[in-house]
Amino acid sequence: MRINPRTEQKIVRVVLWALTGITVAILFFIIAFILRKGVPALGWDFLTKNPVDMGKGGGIFSTVVGTIVLTAGALVIAIPLGVGTAIYLTEYTWEGPVTRVIRFGAECLAGIPSIIFGLFGFILFVTKLKFGWSILSGSLTLAFMVLPTIIRTSEEAIKSVPLVYRTVSFSLGSTKWQTVTRVVLPSALPGVVTGVILSVGRSIGETAAVIFTAGSALRLPTSLFSSSRTMSVHFYILAREGISMPNAYGTAAVLIIAILGINLLTYYLMNRFIKKYS
Amino acid sequence: MNRLERNDRLVRLALLIVALSAISILLVITIFIFEQGTPIMFKYGLKSFLAGREWYPSEKLFGLWPMIVGSLYVTLGAMGLGVPFGLACAIVLTEFSSKRVRSVIKPVIELLAGIPSVVYGFMGVIILVPFIRETLGGPGLSVLAASIILGIMILPTIISISVDSLQAIPPSYREGSIALGATKWQTVKMVLLPAARSGIIASIILGMGRAIGETMAVIMIAGNAASVPHSILDPVRTLTSNIALEMGYAAGEHRQALFATGVILFIIIMILNTVANVTASRMKGTKR
Fold this sequence. Notes:
A: 278 residues, two-stranded antiparallel sheet, B: 288 residues, 14 helices, 2 strands
């Protein structure tokens, strides 16, 4: 039996839209569910008090600090490496075997599961280099994880800076490095920042790589070598061991709100960047 | 050569060293994982490692077969859900929606990628697992639950790469097909999907990689029994869960066996990545 192409199109359109609708609905459901259950637990005390009794009571202050410190540490390591790589790939060389190898490395690194990063960080930083479960080990591991994201987004951003900017700068007698630092990078900044914010999102949400490198101590971290628990790890432990459901929901709500904020910010920056150059 | 030129050469050299960091990190990771994991594989024999059905680390039985099968089942299940939904979204986004609708749906799907995996796992535990237990029976923590949650988690990967490859098709393809009197759906089915084939395949393979590599969400909902599941309602343990569940207390040969699990996972992921890379670059090659 042959179906009339127009009827077929009508049916397919309904099916495709239904599938898309379900996808969008799932997302809204997850966000609404977590926020509805979690927001009542939120409050000034929840954010500024340390967890008490393994997280049964108190707030999540030390895990917020842990998350921020760990993420900041990862960025301090990953930004110079990532942006430097992007500058080299776009400004200082032409397509060839070297760039191909570098790109291949970054692609592969992007595909490696976080648990492998966790294993690696555990064996190298925690045991071999004797950093122990610490902010340092966790930040280094996270930095390696987000490096490909930063490389890729920075590369795209630098590539989209019009060629004229560079030629004008050269014609004024500046060197390559002056051109890069004073003309190209400032123009590419919103794009670079977008990549950095995406990396922040990944670091905040990461659990598997962090739990084996930064540990899960609930104390406030005092140095780079103290173990620290991030919000994601805290949420995982609270939920999995059934320590406190209200606090688990509260932590999840903070995580979701942070991710929402990060996505909005990325979206805003990206739009501004695209408008600027098109 | 004046001072400025010399400085520029130094900068170039420094940047080259920085640029090699990504590839050297990859190398260091490979070396460490293999150095820790391979000795024990050869000590007990590759066959008993890969095909052994018993995983009792305390009795020196390190059979990874249940976990390999487990990862495979869960990943296939996730593909069964993620591919149709992902492709549907990609087609709707590129072909069947107005610009306004697109500007709403696209960020929503990007948001899906940003939600931490523990939150997905948690949703599975709170909603999906009890639902399966009550309606279909079994413990609820199962292949099915893990497949559904993973299927949702890989959607952003499949959608974003498929959208990119559909958008990369020159407009003349669409115009030509429509001019011949084809409907929009016929154009999608007979012209666009074949033209974007390699990109779509690459997106599916990368999605597979994400499903195999996912850890925390799977631990929370898969039940983690180290035995080969007989139905989709049985609990299952994946390669990643095997590592994460026991790493905390493992020592000696047990720890090495977990690294060996990592080696197998690493090899699978590298194969998938290379295949995806090659297919994606073939797509670029044909465009030119």
